[in-house]
Design the sequence.
C-alpha cells in the first residue's frame, strides 16, 4: 500500500511552528556568549513578535472558535485544540522570558552599571528630578477616566499601558474606580541624570513614575490600589477591495478601528490582585487562559532604547560596515557596467545606498525616460521616495505601485503615497483582491545605441532601515529577455491586460506555485530514473500543503533536499518512508534572514531562482509575487559555491528541525572548524573594507571554510 503523504501526522501546525521560531529568538537572549545588550535586543524582539502573533494569529483563532468553526488544516487540529496548545506554550515561553530577565539580565546589567530604579526609592537630587519631570512632562497630558454608573468603562487602546486605580473618599465605604492611560508619546524607559563622576546609567520606567505620583490626579481621595495592565486587541484589517469605492479612504477608516478590535490578551503586573484581574477579564470578555501576570516590565518592546545609548557600545556587537560590491564601485558608470554584466547585491553586507544612488542618478539623468517601481514597505523619510518625486519633477514618466495593505505599515504607506502623488508620480494602489508583494523596479533609458531597460528584482523591500538588518539578495540586469517581461508585468499590474505568461519570470497568483511544483517533480523524476536529484530552498516560511506533499514525493524517490527555513515550517522532516531525505535548518542571528533562494540540480543543468515569495498559500495564491532566474555564470557560482554552502555549513546559529517539531542547535563535529554564515559574510565585507583605508571597520574575526554544494 502506498503511503498517504498528506496524512495529518506528516504536518506540523502553523501556529505551533511559529511559536517554536519565537522560542529560537528567546534562545538568542538566553545565549551567554552574546554581548549583553544584544541579549536584551532579542528579549525586545521576542515581545514584539508575540504582540503581532496575538493581534493576528490568536485573534483569528478566537474568531473561528466564537463562530463555532471546526475547520482543520493539514495537521487536523481544530481551532480549539490549536488555541489550547498555543496558550500552554506561550505561558511557558513568557515565564522563561521573565525568569531570564530577573535572574540573569537585570543582575548582569547592574554589574555593568545599568540599573533600573523604583521611583519610590529615589533620593535627593534624583527624587527631585523625577518629581519635576513628572509635573512638567507627564502630568499635563494625563487624564483620569472614572468608571461608575455615569462613566462607562473607557475604550482602552490596543497595546497601550494603563493603570487601574481603586480609591475611596474619606468616610465612604464604596470604592471608586478609574483608568489612567500612560502617555503614548513619552519614552517608556527614562534615563535619570548621571551623577557626577559616575559611569552608571540609571533608568526608571514611565509607568512606575506615573504610578508614584498618581495621587496628584485624585486630590481628596485615598488611593487603595494602582496596578498596571495592557490589552492586546485584534489588529487585522477587514477590507473588501471590490466593495471599496476609495481604497485609500477605506483603509484609513479601518486603521481607526484597529485600536478598538476585540481584546485577545490581558497582561497585568505581578502585584495585580485577583479582584482586579477578575474585573478586567470580565470587562474585556477574556478568561484566565488569556491572562499573563508579568514579574517585570509590562512590555519588553521598549528595552531596545538601551541599544541607542552610545555610552554602552562595549556591551553590543561591534559596528558593522557593509562593503561595496566590486562590480559596482563608487563613481562607476553603472549603465555601462550593466550593459555587459548582471550584478547581484547582497544586503546588508553590501550597502543599500548603492541601490539608492542608482535611483537618484536615474532621477537626474537626462537620458532616463521612465521609472517604474513597486513599493510594499519603506520608511517615511525614504530617499527612494524622494528620488521618485525628483524624477517626476524632472519630467520623467514615473509610476509607483503602492501596496496600501502592507500590514502595520498602512498609515506610513498612505502618507508617502500622497507625497508621491503631490510630486507628480502616477500612484497605483495595487491589484483588486491581491497584495502586491513583489519587489522590482524598471528604468527606461535612451542609450547611444537604443532605448534599453534596466531592472532590479529583489527578495526584500525598498526600505533603507530594514536593509541594514535584513539579509536580502537583489539582481540588477539589462538582460533583454528578463527586462521585457518585467515591463510587461508592470503593464499587467497597472492596466487591464490579462496575464500573458512568461518564460523567465514565475509570477503568483498565476503560475508560480505550479511551476515550482513542476521543478520539484522534475527532480523527483530524475531520481526515479536513477539519476541523483537535489533541491535546496532558502525561505522564511514553508506552509503550502501542495508543495510540501511534492517535496515528500521527491524525498521518497531519493532526492536529497535541504531546506533553510527561518520561521514557520509545517513540513515534518526525518519521518521514515516520508521525509527521510529532507533536512530542515533554521538560522536566527544578528540579522533577520529574509532572502529566498531556490536551487534545483536538474541532472547537471541547475535551475536557480531568487524570489519575493515564501511557500505559503497567501504568497502563492493571494499576492502578486515573482521568482526570477539567475543566469549569469559568475552569479550562479557565487550562489551555488559560496552563499548557499555558508548557510548549510553553519554550526553556530543553525538549528535543525526534528520529526517531533522541536529544534536542536547544531555544533561543529570534533575537529571541525566553527562555521557561522552571517559572520562569514561580515568578515568578507571587513576584508574588502580593509583594502580601502578611508573606511573604518570592525567585527569579530572568525575562521570559516566553506565546502561547495556537492554535484549530483
Sequence:
Amino acid at each position: 500500500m502506498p503511503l498517504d503523504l498528506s496524512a495529518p501526522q506528516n504536518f506540523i501546525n502553523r501556529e505551533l511552528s511559529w511559536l517554536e521560531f519565537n522560542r529560537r529568538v528567546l534562545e538568542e537572549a538566553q545565549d551567554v556568549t552574546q554581548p549583553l545588550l544584544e541579549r536584551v535586543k532579542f528579549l525586545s524582539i521576542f515581545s514584539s513578535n508575540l504582540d503581532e502573533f496575538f493581534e493576528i494569529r490568536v485573534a483569528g483563532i478566537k474568531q473561528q472558535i466564537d463562530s463555532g468553526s471546526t475547520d482543520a488544516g493539514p495537521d487536523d487540529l481544530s481551532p480549539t485544540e490549536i488555541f489550547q496548545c498555543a496558550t500552554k506554550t506561550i505561558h511557558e515561553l513568557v515565564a522563561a522570558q521573565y525568569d531570564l530577565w530577573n535572574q540573569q539580565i537585570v543582575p548582569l546589567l547592574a554589574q555593568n552599571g545599568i540599573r533600573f530604579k523604583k521611583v519610590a526609592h529615589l533620593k535627593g537630587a534624583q527624587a527631585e528630578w523625577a518629581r519635576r519631570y513628572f509635573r512638567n512632562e507627564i502630568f499635563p497630558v494625563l487624564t483620569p477616566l472614572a468608571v461608575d454608573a455615569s462613566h462607562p468603562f473607557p475604550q482602552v487602546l490596543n497595546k497601550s499601558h494603563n493603570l487601574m486605580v481603586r480609591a475611596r473618599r474619606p468616610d465612604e465605604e464604596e470604592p471608586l474606580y478609574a483608568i489612567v492611560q500612560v502617555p503614548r508619546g513619552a519614552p517608556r524607559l527614562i534615563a535619570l541624570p548621571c551623577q557626577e563622576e559616575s559611569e552608571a546609567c540609571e533608568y526608571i520606567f514611565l509607568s512606575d513614575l506615573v504610578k508614584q505620583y498618581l495621587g496628584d490626579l485624585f486630590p481628596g481621595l485615598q488611593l487603595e490600589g494602582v496596578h498596571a495592565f495592557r490589552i492586546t486587541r485584534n489588529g487585522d484589517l477587514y477590507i473588501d477591495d471590490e466593495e471599496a469605492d476609495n481604497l485609500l479612504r477605506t483603509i484609513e477608516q479601518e486603521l481607526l478601528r484597529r485600536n478598538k478590535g476585540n481584546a485577545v490578551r490581558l497582561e497585568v503586573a505581578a502585584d495585580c490582585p485577583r479582584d482586579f484581574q477578575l474585573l478586567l477579564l470580565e470587562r474585556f470578555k477574556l478568561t484566565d487562559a488569556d491572562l499573563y501576570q508579568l514579574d517585570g516590565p509590562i512590555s519588553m518592546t521598549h528595552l531596545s532604547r538601551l541599544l541607542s545609548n552610545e555610552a554602552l557600545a562595549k556591551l553590543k556587537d561591534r559596528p558593522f560596515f557593509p562593503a561595496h560590491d566590486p562590480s559596482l564601485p563608487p563613481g562607476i558608470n553603472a549603465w555601462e557596467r550593466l550593459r555587459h554584466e548582471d550584478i547581484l547585491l547582497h544586503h546588508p553586507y553590501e550597502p543599500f545606498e548603492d541601490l539608492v544612488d542608482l535611483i537618484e542618478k536615474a532621477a537626474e539623468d537626462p537620458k532616463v525616460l521612465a521609472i517604474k517601481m513597486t513599493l510594499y514597505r519603506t520608511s517615511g523619510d525614504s530617499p527612494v521616495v524622494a528620488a521618485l518625486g525628483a524624477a517626476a519633477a524632472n519630467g520623467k514618466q514615473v509610476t509607483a505601485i503602492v501596496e496600501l495593505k502592507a500590514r502595520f505599515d498602512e498609515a506610513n504607506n498612505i502618507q508617502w503615497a500622497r507625497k508621491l502623488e503631490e510630486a507628480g508620480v502616477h500612484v497605483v494602489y495595487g491589484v483588486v483582491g491581491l497584495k502586491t508583494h513583489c519587489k522590482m523596479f524598471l528604468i527606461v533609458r535612451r542609450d547611444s545605441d537604443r532605448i534599453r531597460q534596466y531592472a532590479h528584482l529583489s527578495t526584500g523591500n525598498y526600505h533603507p532601515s530594514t536593509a541594514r538588518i535584513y539579509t536580502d539578495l537583489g539582481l540588477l540586469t539589462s538582460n533583454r529577455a528578463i527586462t521585457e517581461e518585467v515591463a510587461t508585468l508592470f503593464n499587467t499590474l497597472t492596466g487591464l491586460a490579462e496575464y500573458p505568461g512568461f518564460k523567465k519570470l514565475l509570477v503568483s497568483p498565476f503560475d508560480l506555485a505550479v511551476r515550482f511544483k513542476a521543478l520539484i517533480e522534475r527532480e523527483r523524476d530524475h531520481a526515479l530514473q536513477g539519476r541523483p536529484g537535489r533541491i535546496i530552498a532558502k525561505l522564511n516560511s514553508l506552509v503550502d500543503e501542495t508543495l510540501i506533499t511534492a517535496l515528500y514525493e521527491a524525498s521518497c524517490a531519493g532526492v536529497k533536499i535541504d531546506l533553510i527555513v527561518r520561521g514557520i515550517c509545517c513540513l515534518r522532516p526525518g519521518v521514515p518512508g516520508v521525509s527521510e531525505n529532507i533536512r530542515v535548518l533554521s538560522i536566527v542571528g544578528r540579522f533577520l534572514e529574509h532572502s529566498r533562494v531556490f536551487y534545483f540540480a536538474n541532472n547537471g543543468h541547475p535551475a536557480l531562482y531568487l524570489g519575493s515569495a515564501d511557500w505559503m498559500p497567501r504568497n502563492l495564491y493571494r499576492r502578486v509575487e515573482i521568482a526570477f532566474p539567475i543566469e549569469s555564470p559568475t552569479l550562479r557560482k557565487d550562489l551555488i559555491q559560496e552563499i548557499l554552502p555558508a548557510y548549510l555549513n553553519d554550526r553556530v546559529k543553525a538549528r535543525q528541525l526534528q520529526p517531533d517539531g522541536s529544534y536542536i542547535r547544531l555544533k561543529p563535529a570534533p575537529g571541525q572548524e566553527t562555521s557561522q554564515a552571517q559572520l562569514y559574510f561580515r568578515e568578507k565585507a571587513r576584508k574588502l573594507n580593509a583594502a580601502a583605508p578611508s573606511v573604518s571597520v570592525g567585527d569579530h574575526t572568525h575562521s570559516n571554510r566553506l565546502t561547495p554544494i556537492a554535484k549530483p
Summary: The longest strand covers residues 222-233. The two ends are 30 Å apart (CA to CA).
